[in-house]
Structures are given as structure tokens and as C-alpha cells.
Amino acid sequence: MPWLNGTRSQQSLSLNTVCFFAVSHSQITRLYSRFTSLDKGENGTLSREDFQRIPELAINPLGDRIINAFFPEGEDQVNFRGFMRTLAHFRPIEDNEKNKDPTASEPLNSRTNKLLFAFQLYDLDRDDKISRDELLQVLRMMVGVNISDEQLGSIADRTIQEADQNGDNSISFNEFIKVGNLQHIYVWAGDHYLILT
Amino acid sequence: PLRRVLLILPFGTPLGGVYKERTKDAARLSEFNGKMLLVSWEWSYVQTPYIIAIWILVASVAKILFHFSQRFTTVVPESCMLILLGLVLGGIVLLTSKKQLYQLEPGLFFLFLLPTIVGDAGYFMPARLFFDNLGAILLYAVVGTLWNAFCTGFCLYGVKLLGIIDQKVQAGLMEFLLFGALISAVDPVAVLAVFEEVHVNETLFIIVFGESLLNDAVTVVLYKVYMSFVEVGPENVQTADYFKGVASFLIVSIGGTMVGLIFAALLAFITRFTKKVRIIEPLLVFLMVYLAYLTAELFSLSAILSMTFCGIGCNKYVEANISQKSRTTVKYTMKTLASIAETIIFIFLGISAVDKSKWAWDTGLISCTLIFIFVFRALGVVMQTWVLNWFRLVPLDKIDQVVMSYGGLRGAVAFALVVLLDAERVPAKDYFVATTIIVVFFTVMFQGLTIKPLVNWLKVPRATNRKPTINEEIHERAFDHCLTAVEDIAGLNGYHHWRDKWEQFDKNYLSKLLLRKSVYRKSELWEVYQKINIRDAISVIDQGGNVLTSARLSLPSMASRASFPEVTNVTNYLRENGSGVCLDLQVIDNVPGAKVEEESETHHFLAGNLYKPRRRYQSHYSRHFMTVGDHERQDREIFQRNMKSRMETFKTTRHKRHSHKKDRKQDLNDKPRRNVSWQDKDPVVVTVESEDEKGEHLEPEKEEDVGITFVARKVPDTPKERPKSVPAGLEVCQSPSVAPPSPTCSERNLPWKGGIGTLPVCVSMEATKIIPIDLQQAWNQSISSLESLASPPAFMGNHVPHCLTHSTTEQSPNHTHQLRPSNPLSSATSPSRRRVFISFNNSGSTVSIDSDIHYKHTHTHTHTGYWTNTAMMILRKYSEHPIMSTLFPI
Predict the structure, then answer these.
(1) Are the beta carbons of A188 and B525 separated by less than 8 Å?
(2) Would the CB atoms of B393 and A34 count as touching at under 8 Å?
(3) Looking at CA atoms only, how far is residue B582 from chain A in angstroms?
(4) pLDDT digits (tens, 9 = 90+) for B156-208
(5) What is the per-residue DSSP string for B537-574?
(6) Interval B534-548 mean pLDDT
(7) Among B592, B648, B845, B861, which is most exposed with the fewest C-beta within 10 angstroms?
(8) Nearest-CA distance B476 → chain A (Å)
(9) Which ipTM value was assigned to this complex?
């Protein structure tokens, strides 16, 4: 982890990251200090426990899912680069970015990738489908204990019926985008002062 | 001023033609002559309300007429037409009475017309959208309005100095600033009227509309400050006064908001306790919202702000607390009032313009004002948007800015304010009034007329008239959590962070305080789910869909569909129809193409579910509830069932009590008529009085819409509770009458209709399916007892004309329930006869023949078939008996 060893290497990495994630230098510095403050073990990586120590995250119903999103499959540590990679999903979409380099692969903060990120919060087993059980789990996290299994089940059924187009009783990514009309949700986010500014 | 209208109303001769003179003369004559009048002319008595009612009528008729031509209304906004109509009416008034008699009175406008519109706007404001864009709205409302006011004021003064404005307009800097202040505010009434027809996208609409509401505080303060400056004279204004102005702005805006929020909390808190007096709920909403407005006026705070925030604040809690009917009432009443108020405002604006005394025309002033307000509006929007776009996630693009600049309409608020000016202190008042009228007309008519083509031409994203799906609701919540989490991880205290904090606070404290306990415990998502279901059901029925009645929706056990085999069928149904709607109902199996089968299945479903006499029957006890339409039928039904049960008792006691017949008959003549309550948990033999009391006592405990069913079962055999083996879905399916379906007339009698062969099989299968295990024994018994009868009784034929149910003996399960719907007893509903049976009951007969029949007050299950059966048997057996023939002249 070269960027831990001194300001010079840190800067070089920052520049690298700035180019890669297209975030500003000050953003990187701020996020890096946040990263180190979270890193209680001071080993340059964050573990799940480090995340769980954030008090607001502990009461967030989807907190665990979000934490999971930071960890690639099979790993239980995330370095700064991985940290940034996940957070980059939440950068605002900028129109001029697309014109800059049409041949480049889609940036992480493209609409599709944002939606994919959200989709994967539901899709635990990564089979690109939200099954009824997966949906039920998320619903249960969000609604708390005041609602019976039966009621929750009927909500889940309805949700799937609404979205399901090919009759496989689960929601694929395409169905997820279509039925939720999720663009609408993002457009709505008019005044939301930016994440990652 | 309203009173003066009577002069122009064409009232002719008094009614009756006895006296040709006017009211007073008539009164005098009658006094002097001492004659009694058959009909008298009481105009002075009814004058004021009469004129108001006539005006509202004129406004409504005008509205109706405009909407006759669909093509016309899509091009010309209603507000334009109304102003034109007002001009015409004003012209008529002017011609008849040679001078203008009345105009849009500021008092009337600010106290009655404006609050109805603002109340509607505030209460139905999309809160999420509003708060998401609050930053932009506040910026435009405060900075934008200040900018407009100052720039317009100073520039007009400059133009005056240059000599473009005539010297007749006697106004100094302060007067022009005052005029700039009142002319610069975007008007909520005009914006609503125009933008509602344009349907721009939500964000654009909420920014323009929100601005028009929130700029009220700025306008009020500027207006007041300048008024005081004008009064003391510009040379006496000290520096401290400017600071006072700023302080006044803070007090007026924050104070207004606080008053609104306090009333919102009060209103929400009060509606927690209206469970027993639902009828008063809509009134409470109107009252408290209006009081918020008046209270703010009382303390000379910003009344519009107060009312808007009262509406926004209380909406969530009030909507959750009040009943569905109250919700609908509130919605429709508010919309009706607002629409009428708007109509009247525009008509009066038109009428007010036709007044010679107001026509102090100055071309320089008018044209400069028009140019300035337009230019400064555009400049202001561009500059503010440039600042805003630094912070906004979704920037406002150029097209948005054009629409926002163009949509800065001025309206009745400016007019009412300018009319309020004191002509002695502001010598140029007449010029200002004339200019304001022109500006209002120009913005409302010209800009209102052209904004639609402009929006089309610019291809502004339109509002999608789309209703939220459950998917959106879920994902939106998930996204919110997700964004909050990310902000927390990144260590930013951004928008979502604070939003989440607020929601925690709301959940832990506010909702606990302001929501009913029963509502608080329910999940918000569940509420949304139910709302969506109800909406879908209603829309399907409105479209003439064949998918059942909405009766089921009110049942608490609605959720049980999850365990239902029909789930797949629902999906099939959706896919076949290709519509996005889903009914959370038990949808019948639709075999595509076979219409007859569909119809017959609908029939089976109806036959099994339609007669629900206990449903909502409680309402009849209280004048606080509205009567249900078909209560006649329900009465009859209840009486009918009553009698059947009494018949059983009668049968058992006939031998013993034969000699007491006459006594009983006399007894019953003294007894008052009662509606017998059916909510008793006790056996039938309990006296009527206690039944009634129990009914009264139980009533408030229940939710309004919960159906009451009752259970008759055989005591020794069946446990009290419904066994768990019975699927929960079934209980909905059956209650309250468990008769198996019978074939429809068409199936039986019309051989050209298809599917006859298959249906009986299907029916019988269904019959076995829907009888719960714990009742099957009783069921079988009733079947066997029926089979012991040789043939159906003669009077069964009576109901055949109904064509609803018709069966033969081969299908034994079908026997029972077909006796119910049009039983001859149902006609015997006269009070005296009812009493007869009550007295039977009072006589204390306790034993029944076959088994002890219990009525159980429960929400679960009925087994009507069993005791209906028994009752009918008895009835048949004893119909020859002398007392029976007196009671039932069949």
C-alpha cells in the first residue's frame, strides 16, 4: 500500500484516482482522511467491523447490505481503492462526461451502474434475479416488526407480479429498471446536496 | 358592495301578484291595512346570501359552458375565458347603472377567496417534492422577489426622472418601490390556474408554484415597510428603520410558518380522537387550516405561509388518522371550493377592470412596468439558477429557465394589494391600479395563452400522469436508506443524513404523539400497499371491469391472499389483460374466451358473497353516520334471518307453550319496535333488551367498515375456535354466507350457452373445497335432513323470477342458500309482525330441536347454510298450523 507511506506516494495515487474516478483532488483528500479515521486497525484496509462502528449505520435498516457492497466476493477487507470504487457509484451524473470519451467503458456513476448497485442490494445470491425470498428479506429489514409475515408476503407477491414480465416469479434487472420507473426517482432528487462533492 | 348588486338584478314583480310594489311598500301596506299577506317579498332578508349564491352559480355555469368544447379549452386557458366573461359582465353592469358598482374587494379576497385556494394547495402539496426542492424554492421566493421588487421600483423611478412617465403620475421613489413590491410577486392563483393546464414536469411546477406561495412573506413585509415609509415621508426614514424591516421580515415569515405548524400539530392531534365521530373529521380539517390562516392574519404574519405549512405539516398525520370517506370528502370539498374561488376571482378581476374611474392611463408607466417585470424576472431567474446549479444534483437547464421566467404570472394578490392603497397618501394610486390591471391581464391572458405552445415548442419534459407502483415505493425507500448509509460512510452530513435524522425524530416522537395508536403500529409501507390496492380496484371497477366488488377490500384479512392458490391466476389475469393493475382480490379463474363461464363464475362469487346483512349495519344506530343506501334490503334480510332463528325456538316450545299464545300476542302489542342487534355472543334465548344493549356497547369498539358475521354451530361437536387447518383465505371467501354456488339461469335454462356440461362438476368441487373441516359434519347433517324431505316446498318457486339462483334436488348442497335471497318471509317486514317474533323470544323458550345453536359474534366464519336449512324445514312443516298462517300469509 504505497500511499500510506508518505505524502508523495499518496499524491501520486491520488492523481491516479482522480483520473480514474474523475473526482476532484479535494474530494480525494477528504475521503482519504475519512478512510483513515474509520480504519481503527491502522492497516490500510477496512474490515466489516470498522464499518459497523459507525453509529448511524448501525441503525440503518439496510446498513449491512451497504457494507456488503464494499466487499468483493469472498473478501473481508477493503482498501482505499475499493472504498473509492464503491463510493464512485454515487457521484452525480455529468452530461459532459459522456461527450468526453465515447469509446471508454461506462463510468461507475452512469445511470445503469447506479441502478445495478441498487439492484445488487436486493440480489444476495448474485444470480441477477430478485427472488421472492430476497425481496422478503429486504422488506423485513425496512418495515420492522409491526407487520405480519402474511402481510409482508402479500406485499412481496404484489411487487413481483407488478414487475415480473416473463413469468419466472422473480425480478430481473431489466424488469427492475422498467417497472420501478427509477429514473423518476433520480430526477426527483433535485435539490439533494451532492454526495461526494 | 355586494349589496349594491341587487340594483342590477332583474327582479320583476313580486311573487303571487298580490302586491306590485317593492318589499318595503308591501310591508308598509300590510302594516297599514292590517291584511294578512299570502306571499310576501322578503328581499332584504335574503339579499346577501342570495347574491353570493347567484354569483357562485354564474361562476359554475360559466365553467361548465367553457368545458363544452374540448378543442377550445385545450387552446385557451380557463382563466382567460373567465376574465373575458368578467369584462362582459362588467360592461353590462356599467351600461345598466352608468357606473361601476363593485369590484374584487380586498377584504373578500383575502379573507375568503384566497384561503380556499391556498388551503387546497397547501394540504395537497406533494411534501416530498416540495422539501426536496426547498432550497431552490426559498431562493427564488426570497431573493428573486426582493430582486424583482427593488429593480422594478428603482428603474421605474429612473424612468420617471428621465421623463418617460408623465408628470401626472405624482410618485416619488418610495411610491415606486411600493408599487414594485406589490407588482413583483408571482401570484399563486394565476400560477395554479395556468400551470395546471400546461402539465410541465413536477420539479418545474413545484419550483414555480412553491415560489409563488412562499414569496408572500416578502411581499407582505415590503408592502408594509414601504407603506410606513410613505406615511412618515422618505426624508424621515432612519437607518434603524431598514433594520426593523429586516427583523420584520424574519418575524413575519418565521412567525407565519410557526403558526401554521402549531395548527398542523393541533389538527393532527385532534383527529386522533375522532374515531367515534367520523362525520366531523372533514370539518375539523377545514376549520383548523382556515384558523391557521386567520390567526396569522390576526398577528399580521404571513397568512399564506401559515396556511401552506399547516397543510403540508398536517397532511401526513391527518390522512392517516381520518377514515377513507373523510379523506374523499376533504379532497373533493377542497377542490370544489378552490375551483369556485378561482373562478370567482378571475370573473371579478374582469369586472373590476371595467371602471372609468380607474382608467388613469399612462402609456409610459404601463409599458415600462411590463418591460421591467419581464426583463428582471428573466434576469433574476438566470442568475439564481446559475448559483443554484452549483448545488443541485439535477441542474435546471435553459429550457427550465425559460419556462420559469415566462411562468412568472402576476394576479389577483397584486390587484387586491394595489386597491388597498390609500389614495390620499399615494396620489398616483389610480395609475398604479390601472397598470396593475394591465399587467395582470397581460400575464394571465397573453402569457397564459402562449405558454402552452411555448412549452410544446421547447419540448419541456411533461409530467407523466402515472400513479406510483408498489415497486417504486419500495425502491424509493431502499434508495433513501442506501444514500443515507453512503453519506454516513463517507462522513458527510448531507441532505440524506438530515432527512434520516428527521425521520427518526418523526418516528420516535411526532408520530407517536400525533398518530392514532392503531395507525402508528401499522407499517407505512403496508398502508401504501393497501392504498394502491384500493385505487386499482376502484379504477378497474370504474372501467367496467368484471373483477368483483370492492366489498372485500375493507376486510382486515385481506392479506391472506398470499396463501391462496389463486395467486398464479392473478398473474394470469394481469398478463392476459396487459394492464398494469393488480387486484388484491380473489380473482376468479378466467378461462379466456369463454364469456359465459366468466359470467357464471361471477355469479357464483356474487351468490356466495353478496348478501352481507351484517356489513356496516351498525351505522344505522347513529345519526353520526351516514346511512347506507340499501338499508331497506338489509333490514329485510336481518329480519328474515331473525325469524328463521325464532322459528326454531318456536318449534321447540310449541307443545309446551301452546296455551300461552294469546297472552304473548297481547304482550307484544305493548312492546316498542326495535332493531335487534346481532352482535350478541350469547345464545338466542337472551332477551331482546340485553341484545340491544350489548350491541350498543360493542359498537364503538369496532372500526367502521368491519363486517360482522355470526356463526351457528353445533356445540357438542365443534370447538369454539376456528381450527388452524382452515386456510385463512377461505374465511374471506365464505363470510358471511356459506352457501355453495348454484348454477346460473343461463347455465340451466339456456342450452345455447356453452359450458353447461362442465360447470356442475366445478361447482361441486368448489363446494367441498369451501366448507371448512369443522363445519363439515354440520353440513352433512343438514344435507341429510334435507334429503329426508320429499320435495321442495311450493313457495320455493316464488323466487325464480329473480333468476339469480335456481337449483334442483340432484345437487343437494345447493339447496340451502337458494332459499335465502327471495324467501317469501322477506316480505313480512311490517312492524307488528316483527314484534310477534320478538315476543316469542321473550317468552323464554330455551330448547332447540336438533342442537344448540349459538350465534357467535366473530369475524371468522358463518355457517348459514345449516341453520337456514333447519329453519326452512321447520317453516315448511308448520306452515299449515293456524298461528303460522296468521303470521305468514304465504
Answers:
(1) no
(2) no
(3) 7
(4) 999 988 888 877 777 788 889 899 999 988 999 999 988 888 888 888 899 99
(5) HHHHHHTT--S--GGGGG-GGGGGGGG-TTHHHHHHHH
(6) 70
(7) B592
(8) 7
(9) 0.83
